[in-house]
TrEMBL record:
It is found in: Membrane. It comes from Rhodoferax sediminis. Keywords: Membrane, Transmembrane, Transmembrane helix. This is MFS transporter. Pfam families: MFS_1. One of its GO terms (cellular component) is membrane. The chain crosses the membrane at residues 48-69, 76-96, 102-129, 141-161, 167-185, 227-245, 265-289, 301-319, 325-347, 359-382, 388-409. Residues 11-414 form the Major facilitator superfamily (MFS) profile domain. One of its GO terms (molecular function) is transmembrane transporter activity.
Length: 429
């Protein structure tokens, strides 16, 4: 009789909690922003700088964090990173000025910088190839769920106690997750005492060979050649995602006139739509691959559909006069945008294998760089133009560019494969 209980599914559940908590700690600043801005007297541009302070170390440490996970194992690396971001979240509750808030958000970016590449490295060893799209989809769904529940959670704590207490409470939850992770997680299935031989066979990953490979010299030049386009498309995707994560509550409050009670509800709806999009994107991409055996089609189709659908629904947002219609359009746009997320995170595993941590960091650097630029540019354009029309137009342009780039991504060109030598036809005399 085949056992239903799988240790790898518990590992996946713990990683879902990681993504959930990490995103709450990441986006809580956007929900608390109106209160922080009032207390510290921040302009929209200064607020944009606060949003972006997280993204600078986040982008810089993507590759470093992934490389460390490849070399030293995700158990140690992720434990250290989660402690750093938990403490940084706690410290945000004690900020006394713009400068201190910038410093604490910067440290938070250090902690979260290598977290998702490290988790990707863990999935490479713990999951068979046919489950990786789903794993990336469901974990990022929990990330979006974290973002979706952040407004009611943070606003609820703010209403009862204050904005500072919201950061302190969330930082404590992050420390509890770290303890759970260190107790249960192991770097490979073969190291976990609960994993049976039958499950090891189902996973089908030669962990000894992959560990030996990852400890060797990292093929940087080859990975750059095969991952740069994925990184670029991730930048185009990330630009719009950062707009949703940082400016959505302020947009709904300032441009659409939602009060505090309604803001907690309607700021969550687009992110809840993203929860569905994340899971569906990974599931559909895996299903296409199983049905066709064509990895190019499975990955490219979801990228084009997701970015294209997001573009279609983001364009009319500014023009509509109905606040509820604006929320509906934003929700649809974010749903389609998130169809691409699981695919983008699957590509480092598809292409880099044992170096998936490093490749995942390389890919997510695009997202991090977008986070460095997007919130500041968005805030500057709002301040200088007095409207949201131009900032949303910039997002639309980058979605178009991302669609074009997606058509040329090739997940079948794997790191370590011999170079393709073009065949030269020799005329027969």
């Amino acid at each position: 009789m085949k056992r239903m209980f799988k240790v790898r599914h518990l590992i996946l559940a713990i990683m879902c909690l990681l993504y959930f908590i990490a995103y709450i700690d990441r986006v809580n600043i956007s929900v608390a922003a109106p209160f922080i801005s009032k207390e510290f007297g921040l302009t929209p541009t200064e607020l944009g700088v606060v949003f972006s302070a997280f993204a600078f170390p986040y982008a810089a440490l993507q590759i470093v964090g992934g490389w460390c996970a490849d070399k030293f194992g995700p158990r140690l690396v992720l434990a250290v990173l989660s402690i750093i971001w938990a403490i940084a979240t706690l410290l945000c509750g004690f900020a006394w000025s713009l400068t201190s808030l910038l410093v604490f958000r910067f440290v938070l970016g250090i902690g979260e910088g290598g977290a998702f590449p490290t988790a990707t490295r863990a999935f490479t060893f713990w999951l068979p190839a046919t489950e990786r799209g789903f794993a990336q989809g469901i974990t990022h769904s929990f990330a979006r769920l974290g973002g979706a529940v952040t407004p009611p959670i943070v606003i609820g704590i703010v209403a009862l106690y204050g904005w500072r207490e919201s950061f302190i409470a969330l930082g404590a939850v992050s420390l509890l997750w770290t303890a759970l992770y260190v107790w249960f997680f192991r770097n490979t299935p073969s190291e976990h005492k609960w994993v049976t031989q039958a499950e090891l066979k189902e996973i089908g990953v030669d962990t000894a060979r992959m560990k030996s490979t990852s400890k060797g010299k990292t093929p940087w030049a080859e990975m750059i050649r095969k991952m740069w386009l994925v990184t670029f498309v991730d930048f185009c995707y990330g630009w719009s995602l950062w707009v949703f994560l940082t400016w959505l509550p302020s947009y709904l409050k300032d441009a659409r006139g939602f009060d505090l009670k309604h803001l907690a509800i309607f700021a969550s709806l687009p992110l809840l739509a993203g929860v569905v999009g994340d899971t569906l994107g990974g599931v559909v991409s895996d299903a296409i691959y199983k049905r066709t055996g064509n990895l190019k089609i499975a990955r490219r189709a979801m990228l084009v559909l997701g970015l294209g659908g997001s573009l279609v629904f983001i364009l009319p947002v500014v023009g509509t006069k109905d606040p509820m219609m604006a929320v509906a359009l934003l929700s649809a746009s974010f749903f389609f945008l998130e169809l691409t997320n699981a695919v983008l995170w699957s590509l480092p595993m598809d292409i880099a294998g044992a170096y998936a941590g490093t490749a995942g960091g390389m890919m997510n650097t695009g997202f991090g760089v977008a986070g460095m630029i997007s919130p500041i540019v968005f805030g500057f354009l709002i301040q200088t133009t007095g409207s949201y029309q131009v900032p949303f137009a910039v997002s639309a342009i980058l979605l178009v560019i991302g669609i074009i780039g997606s058509l040329f991504i090739d997940p079948t060109r794997k790191v370590g494969d011999p170079p393709v030598v073009p065949k030269i036809a020799i005329p027969v005399r």
